[in-house]
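Lab notebook page, bench 4
Experiment: in silico fold of construct C2
Operator: M.H.
Input chain length: 527 residues
Purpose: comparison with the prior construct
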Amino acid sequence: MSTLQKEIDSRKTFAIISHPDAGKTTLTEKLLYFGGAIREAGTVKGKKNTKHATSDWMEIEKQRGISVTSSVMEFSYEGHHINILDTPGHEDFSEDTYRTLTAADSATMLIDAAKGVEAQTKKLFKVCSMRGIPIFTFINKLDRQGRDPFELMEEMENLLGIRSVPMNWPIGMGRDFYGIYDRHQQQVELYNADNPAHVEVKKITGPDDPLLDELIDPSFLAQFREEIELLDVAGDMYDVDKIKSGELTPVFFGSAISNFGVQNFLEHFLHLAPSPVGRESDQGFVAPIRDSFSGFVFKIQANMNPKHRDRIAFLRITSGKYTQGMHVNHVRLGKSLRLTQPTQFLAQDRSIIQEAYAGDIIGLYDPGTFRIGDTLAEKDNFQFAEMPHFSPEHFAVISVKDAMKHKSFEKGLQQLTEEGAVQLFHTYNRYPEQQIIGVVGVLQFEVMEYRLNNEYNADIRLERLPFSIARWVDGSDTALEQFKKRQRNLTTDRDGRIVALFDNEFQMRTAADKYPELTFYENSFRK
């Protein structure tokens, strides 16, 4: 096996998806802890002296106790090089999450044992399912009282359309949580409520091993044995091919906050999860083992280090190997770039790297050169698929309160737009021209206002608008000219494309019926 193949095979790049408060950021912290990337796992919420979660690096995230931007974290564990993409769980940030998922080869779906499959989990699962990537499930908070495990698995099938195969199985729950039984390794991991970090592992011959009679209350043991028998007889069979195609999800039980079951999950996951996969381009499929370097920008983040006012483009390496100082083609701009000091990440912490391989996520210093979706290629000029901007649902006219801060305001607005945090539109054929911000969820207004104020010292004024729908409009020049003369509430996006704003679905359908020769798109993507 070549060195390139060996390095690529050791990579595991995955995203963690969930509904807010299911424990996603906590699970990420514990995985980093096992990888030795941090000495102490942080918590998402807590008192003043509580350590903040590593992946929540923005000040507003620390204050609000939520993740509002995707984080990238890299660490090594038992010969594997792991890249975790920690996505925002809040529905207001689904577009950032979507873009992040394009950089992942698999996903871990986190489910609260008490709440089951929630709304945002369904949306994120759908994106993963469309891509056909393997999905691994971690059912969390077993140290609290939750729903019956069979009921949770049935709900996953009914709501998500995916069958499941439990890799381990809980013994009890809540106050009566005894631990988990690893069905493949035939061992029990015993839960110690007084010291959850201390996990006692016992090898057994199976569920009927007499040793269990000494460790577990008879009533819970009898129920556990019945459940395992039912799984063995009526449950789905373990099928590697179905797991790889996203048709079957391996299920793990545990408690991230107690750090119980996390290592069991990690070790199984690294065995089952795919190594880096290739991507389709406009010139065909690009395989990871391709000898020339290529990658695509899936995220741009300004002010990761506020002191330096830096801007970083996150690039997923799709093929080949990066070496320090190499030259690549910036396909959209049609020019050559030298990659001098790419970095790898632990949230906002970074380190300069000498080399990286397909599957890795690297950060490129961005003086304004990159856009989300840009392709970089060492030898060729192919392009990976464009990433769409989705239709916003909330709109507001934005302006700066202090005219003396106009320059910093415009800079901040431009950077937040290029990050994809908000979408910026300009009113069409209207004087004076107004700038309109569009967002998927209202919390994004708050984050934008906070960041413009704290990172760019620009105090803004927002005037909410009644629109709830944006549609990109395309058609013949003649039809477009007629539309632009007669239709109100038109704007242009950053590329000068016409975008119509509507109050509701009825208005949008009326316009579509009136102009049948035009096409109304829900996003900016053109096939």
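Observations: The radius of gyration is 25 Å. Confidence is low (pLDDT under 50) at residues 38-58, 60-69.
Next step: discuss at group meeting.
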